[in-house]
Amino acid sequence: MNRFLSLALLGGSLLAATAGHAQTDKSKRPSPPAKVSQVINTGTTVSIDYSQPSVKGRTIGKDLEPLKDQVWRMGANEATVFEVDKDVTIEGNKLPAGKYSIWGVVRDNNDFNIIFNKDWDFWGTKYNEHRDSDVMSIVVKSRPLVTPIEKLTYTIDPSGKVTLLWGNMAVDFHVQ
Asked: Is the pTM of this model over 0.85?
């Protein structure tokens, strides 16, 4: 009986350890992590650390973020983190070197408001708890894509153009 109990406990421990390890493997999430980094023409390194949700047949703006006039974390899971290793100017606004969470709000006339917030190390959509930590806000135009993008993707061009691609929408902003 003791032998059976010992084997059962060992088996349960191994199962728990395996399940715990599987949960820490972020690449297995429905919205896996991604990171893009680029040294732009000013010698500044720009990085975006985010998770990639998929459209999966849903309609962006209707049953999938971003929803009009609602703050969106511009990714999934943890906060989307925008990092620069030197002071920069984004669309004419100064942003000190550092890490920031970025948030987006779709407005009328294809306006897309991007908010940079100094609180970046957290999970989920807790913007209202962090809004007093906003550092900067810019408004840019979104543009339609001819070919929809299934997984949310960020690109950074060596010229400093940062682009969010998601569904049938692209949003660009310039870092200098």
From this structure: no
